[in-house]
Amino acid sequence: MKKYNKRIRKEECETLQSSLKVVTSWKRFCQVVFVSGKYMSEAIERGVKIRYIMNLPENGNVKSNSLRYIMGHPNFEIRYVKSLPQTFFSLCDEKETYIVTTPEKDLLDSPLLWSSNKSLVSLIQNSFEPLWKTAKKT
């Protein structure tokens, strides 16, 4: 078990080669951008495609100044689901995954299960794709 921290996110983003797929909450997404938006921006500039699935924020406002750059980039997409996802996870280059074990906690208080096990990575990939197809753009 690891705890999410800036170093983990930096290493995750620096080693990305092609894709990052994430299911999370709007609140945690904003925390990720605050903690490690620079590293996400660098990955996007290297050509990494980043896709996020999350719930809509309660106020319905999905634009903010801190998110404007990455949200407008062609390598970055967000789709929304009506209700808060029950499982939060990320899939890095379809080779490794981070699964949040306590999604109700804030970002920096959340233990993570990391794995490069092909079966677990495949399970996460197979969970992400159908959700992506049914999630809405805004």
Largest sheet: 7 strands, mixed
Write down the overall geometry. Answer: globular
**Count of β-strands:** 7
Name the CATH class.
Answer: Alpha Beta
Distance between the termini: 35 Å
Kindly report the CATH topology.
Answer: Endonuclease, Chain A
> What is the count of helical runs?
4
The radius of gyration computed from the alpha-carbon positions, rounded to a whole number of angstroms, is 14 Å
The CATH superfamily is Endonuclease Chain A
Nearest-integer average pLDDT: 84
Helix content: 25-40%
Counting helices, strands and paired strands, the structural category is: alpha/beta
What series of H and E elements makes up the topology?
EHEHEHEEEEH
Strand content: 15-25%
**CATH architecture title:** 2-Layer Sandwich
Write down the domain tally.
Answer: 1
Strand order of the largest sheet: 1-7-6-5-2-3-4
How are the elements arranged and paired?
Elements: E1 2-3, H1 6-15, E2 19-23, H2 26-45, E3 49-55, H3 68-71, E4 76-81, E5 89-92, E6 96-100, E7 111-115, H4 118-134
Parallel strand pairs: 2-3, 3-4
Antiparallel strand pairs: 1-7, 2-5, 5-6, 6-7
Helix pairs in contact: 1-2
